[in-house]
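Morning!

This is the sequence you dropped in the shared folder:
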Amino acid sequence: MPDQSIPQSLPEARTPAAASDGVQVVPSEPSSPEGVSEGLTRRRLLGTAGATGLVLGAAGGAAGYTAAPSQATPLSSIGAGEAMFHVKHQPGITQGLQARGHLVAFDLAAGAGRKEAAALLRRWSETARRLMAGEATASDDTDVARDAGPSSLTVTFGFGNSFFTRTGLEKQRPVALDPLPDFSSDHLDKTRSNGDLWVQIGANDALVAFHALRAIQKDAGGAAKVRWQMNGFNRTPGATAHPMTARNLMGQMDGTRNPKPADADFDQRIFVPADSTKDPAWMADGSYAVVRRIRMLLDDWEKLSVTAQEQVIGRRKADGAALSGGTETTPMDLEKTDANGDLVVPINAHARITRPDQNGGAAMLRRPFSYHDGIDPDGTPDAGLLFVCWQADPLRGFVTVQRKLDRGDALSKYIRHEASGLFAVPGGAAKGEYVGQRLLEA
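The structure's back. Tokens below.
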């Protein structure tokens, strides 16, 4: 679990010029998360219908709604959060951590190929667009999320290595999608790894997230079946007195050194450039997601003293500051020693090993979820991290850092990688497009 953090809000670039690239420009309040719209949505109106006699009508297949009366109770700031679907980079990459998440992989059904995949991505994209706007699905909506707003829902789609064989698109498969190498900490369950298609769902409300998961599953119909599915969570936005780096189930601040969109080289590290010479054209503005189910051996970890835990990580547990001193954001002094001449930050500390300047500049954008899948018969909790990281080149990003961790990370003794996947996530769909259209209709 490389030591790089996700800020509470990572903004999409949204300017009038971007609108021509399919980016919907919506003004937001200064205190609202970037990409949040305060406009009315179907679900916001439905929430007031019973009390106010709201009239719903439909004409020509499109629903029309009267304005909500002034006495209607507004949604909370959490429910009102709205991420845009038609953006340069798919939603769910640069947004801040979300309270609930679902990761799900699908395999195409026997006999399904490129045509069926294109129809499926078209359905999925329309469903994602509607749900992210706080609207119902086009048909047979389950009403699970009725009364709730969009709650910052994001839905992200990717393609696995096997997808290209199944659809006859081998020549379009990126070299960067070659299978990940084996690592010493791997204890992988192949039935919960990889897949033809991958979907990441995140929201700040559990019912909104589940509603999207169920809609995506139903949309798959006979074209694809679920290969594996995992559920995760994070701290709910607003639960702390001020925005701060998230904590994982070990109690550590997790990800202090995450790259930020304001960094000069952010796009270069995270997204495939439009003029890339090593990636196919359909991956322009896309990214590569590495997904790992990392079990934390909490019984062993919690036997350590706080001081011992801090030595493993290389940072103070209370505030995330490096053991060399300062605050959470103070640069780590790798050469500082104590009165005995020992390094203050141990040579095998997780935070030292994962630093970009210790890995040839390798960096990735971490956007994980914690998980808890119950307790084993012997009383051991099945809990840990659904690790998701984003990079323009997984060989230079994740693989470089994980190989370094394999050679002596103090944290390795307390974690186990149990599932894995690598997915090519194309750029966002412009208005009138569906995700992956530039690949499937080339």
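Headline: Confidence is low (pLDDT under 50) at residues 4-70.

More detail when I'm at my desk.
O.
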